[in-house]
Specification:
This protein is of the alpha/beta class and 277 residues long. The chain contains twelve helices and nine strands. The longest helix has 24 residues.
Length: 277
């Protein structure tokens, strides 16, 4: 979808998708932002901007009340009826592709920069992100450690767990980090799986979000699940909690990947040390 091009650079921009908001800040164009969606939590200062709602449940009224002259969204934005309504209101809407790959991040940065009229800065930023990520991936490939098998759990309830499969950001992120997801070839996106499927997957480590662990009993509740207790991860208590923004596939991708790799290594080393003692 493409809106009506403005004669002058947009000065009232709304960003819908955490990765786009990160890009706007990385391009030093945050002074043009007048709103952001709920997934836009980084940098933390972005949370001071008016929130137009969750990117898959947008409302035209809240967005139009901010009088934007440009709305940047990814293809994940919904519902389509709201996007159509915004376009009918003659607001310039740019839909940015959101492929969960390094090439996808590069393209996303450049397209956002183009929409903001700062292509040169976008090309430079994209080049830096690609170079840093490529260097990190080369280091990972050079390491002799055997791959870690891990699952990503979005939530758990009554012995049923929603886990990440092929096509999800979490699966793509783990793959880049060199982590094997046993559900990658079994399910698509996020789906609930049974305890039997969980035991069969038998992950070495469970990865989940910080907000799952924040209540204090979240990890304990996860590890107390009968099926989890019968996995290698459950027996050794290996759970890695990450920030949701790590899955944004934005300009902070190399730092996010490095953080995950470091936590997985620390968790693995802890288990090896315990085994040697």
């Amino acid at each position: 979808m493409q809106g009506w091009a403005a004669d002058a650079p947009a000065e009232r921009v709304i960003s819908v998708d955490g990765s786009i908001t990160e890009i706007v800040y990385a391009l030093q164009q945050q002074h043009r932002l007048v709103g952001r969606d709920t997934t836009s939590t980084w940098p933390e200062v972005a949370q001071d901007l008016p929130d137009v709602g969750y990117m898959r449940q947008l409302s035209a009224e809240g967005i139009l009340s901010l009088r934007p002259d440009l709305i940047l969204v990814t293809a994940d934005a919904q519902p389509q009826s709201v996007l159509d309504q915004l376009q009918q209101a003659r607001v310039d809407i740019r839909v940015i592709p959101n492929a969960y790959t390094l090439a996808g991040v590069e393209d996303k940065i450049i397209q956002v920069a183009d929409a903001l009229g700062v292509r040169e800065a976008g090309v430079l930023l994209a080049s830096e992100v690609v170079e840093r990520t490529t260097d990190l991936l080369a280091e990972l490939q050079a390491q002799s450690d055997s791959p870690v098998k891990a699952i990503f759990v979005m939530n758990a309830h009554n012995s049923s767990m929603m886990v990440a499969g092929k096509g999800s950001r979490a699966d793509a992120f783990m793959s880049l980090a060199g982590v094997i997801n046993p559900f990658s070839d079994v399910i698509n996106n996020f789906q609930n799986v049974s305890g039997e499927a969980l035991m069969q997957a038998n992950p070495d480590i469970i990865i989940t979000l910080d907000e799952v662990a924040i209540p204090g009993s979240g990890i304990e509740r996860l590890l107390s699940d009968p099926a989890v207790r019968r996995t290698e991860a459950g027996r050794s208590g290996k759970v890695v909690a990450i920030e949701a923004r790590w899955l944004n596939f934005g300009p902070d991708l190399p730092n996010s990947l490095d953080s995950l790799v470091s936590r997985v290594k620390a968790m693995r080393s802890r288990g090896e040390s315990q085994g040697d003692s």
